[in-house]
Design brief:
Strand content: 15-25%
Distance between the termini: 19 Å
CATH superfamily: YlxR-like
Strand order of the largest sheet: 4-3-5
CATH architecture: 2-Layer Sandwich
CATH class: Alpha Beta
Number of domains: 1
Radius of gyration: 13 Å
Number of strands: 5
Helix content: 25-40%
Bound molecules: zinc ion
CATH topology: Hypothetical Cytosolic Protein, Chain: A
Length: 93
Amino acid sequence: MIRQNPVMRICVSCRKTYDRENLLKITKDHNQGIMFYKGTGRSAYICKSKKCHSDSKIKKKLQKALKTFLEPEFIEILEKEIISYDYNSNKGI
Ligand SMILES: [Zn+2]
């Protein structure tokens, strides 16, 4: 099978390297603030592992990676994002 070279990125939680397509991308957009999958600016990635989603230090790790302060609401938004992301990734199987 011919495949384009995957773009590899590191999960902020487990520090393992994954194909970018398999990661949840969080970007601190210059104008619009925190965004998922879009935006331009500093980005951080989380892998699909449950361990990383439920990491109690994930917010701290993301704050460090994005060099920004994340509102307490961010975690709620992130959790919703993860639910739909799990759903989408399971759909094709
Ligand atoms: Zn991870």
